[in-house]
Each structure stands twice: as C-alpha cells, then as structure tokens.
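Appendix C reproduces, verbatim, an entry submitted by the partner laboratory led by Prof. M.T., so that reviewers can inspect both the input and the predicted structure.
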Amino acid sequence: MDELVVVTGATGRQGGAVARHLLAAGWRVRALTRDPDSASARRLAAAGAEMVRADMADIASLRPAFAGAHGVFSVQNPMISGLDAEVRQGRAVGDAAAEAGVRHVVYGSAGVGRSGTGVGQWESKLVVRDHLESLGLPLTVLRPTAFMELMTDKDFYPPVSMWHLMPKLIGGDRPLPWLCADDLGAVAARAFAEPERFVGADLALASDVRTLDECRELWREVFGRPPRRFPMPVWLFERFTGKDLTAMWRWLHENPVEIDPAVTRSIVPTARTVREWLSVR
C-alpha cells in the first residue's frame, strides 16, 4: 500500500478523513486543494501528504495532478459549488482519471442511490456515478445518508437545522442512518486496500440508526444539557440555503431509509455509534 492515491476535496471533511486514513495505512497521498496555504492543508502536509493546487472543474489542472496515480478519491460539495458545478467537477475528475489510467476510483456519493427523489444533490450524484461507469473505471461508490457532524459543525447550522427544522420536517421519531466523516475515511482506505472486494460495490453506509429524538436524548446524557436550538421558519432558512435541504428532509419524512449498520461494521469494526462519537467530541 505504498502506491499513490489522489484525494480531491482534501481539506474538507470527507477528503480530509480519507487522506488521514490512507497516510496512516502507508499510502502516498497527493491531496488536491484550491488553497495549499490553508491551515487544514498545512496540517495534511505535516502528516505527509503532497499538497497540490488544482481546480476540479478544470481538467487541465487535474491531468498533472493525476499523473502516476494508482487511485483517486473523488468528492464534490454542491453546498459550495452548486449542483451544475458539482456535476462538471465530478465528470472532469472521471475524465482525468480515465486518461491517467487510474486503477481504482472511490466516489464519495450520498443519498439512496436511485432517481426520482426530487432531491437535487442526490440526483446530481447519480449523474456523476453514471459518467464514471460509462468510462469503464474500476469504481466503488460510498453512500452515507446523514453525517453525525450535522449535530455539531457550525457550517451545518445545527441549532437551526439539526435541532429545529429537521425534527419538524422529517419527524422526531423517524429512524435515520448515521455515520461520522472519519469512519467514511476508514471505509475508503479499506476499499483501496482490497480492490478485489470493493471494485463494483455501491455501499450504503451507516454505523448507527437513531431517530432525531434519540439523538437529542443522547446529547443530553453525554453533555448534561439539551443541544442549543434556534427556531427559524422554513421560508427564511430556504432563503439562505435554497430549497434542496428541506426537500431532502421532507422526502425522508415520507420514505424510510433502511441501512443495516452490520455492513459498515464488517468493513470497519470500530465504526462509532452516535453515543460513542458524541462522547469524544
């Protein structure tokens, strides 16, 4: 496992977790970012990653970054780029990987893996996946539903979203599949290590299944207080974030998502439950 893996979005939650686990397993990591001078980029460089400036929408910048790569971890963030740009970036990563003769692409997707949900950021990932498959790339797809970081990370506005609007739109008693970003990184590293097991796999990932009400009670048990909540009307939230997140939450209210955590634990036995993850925050 001393070959080279290129990690896109390397300073984000998913890409950063993948890069860290690959480095720990002995892979060489080329970490792509738009800002190699950021604090997160400097931390990855200190851990041993080769930091490279690249734009996922620009295949000309991806070609030299992919030279000599055995594998590529591909992830895009539509909350930053928008849905159309997400698709352009995902396609460009696939095209550059195919040109470079990459032997394994692990794609950080999301959602339920089928069309017709009306959730833009799930549908866009199906377009990217179909393009990667059309190129004949050896492919593994990772599909988490809900990241545990929704409960804590300020970029997700947890007092408004996780603790106020999600219970209203999904329902506090709807079981949801949870995974933390670090455990997704561990799954990705395992996929690169065992291509014979994972090439061709489309993996719905979860290490715990909990309702939002259960998550709130676990928070109270761990921290001795309820999570902070900031009421906001749906229309105002949509003015800031668009309507895709609320469309997702409404879809989840009407459509149960069943994922067996045993599948994820068969890959990473140490994958954390919600309680375990909160306990180390």
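The chain has a mean pLDDT of 97. Additional entries are available on request from the coordinating office.
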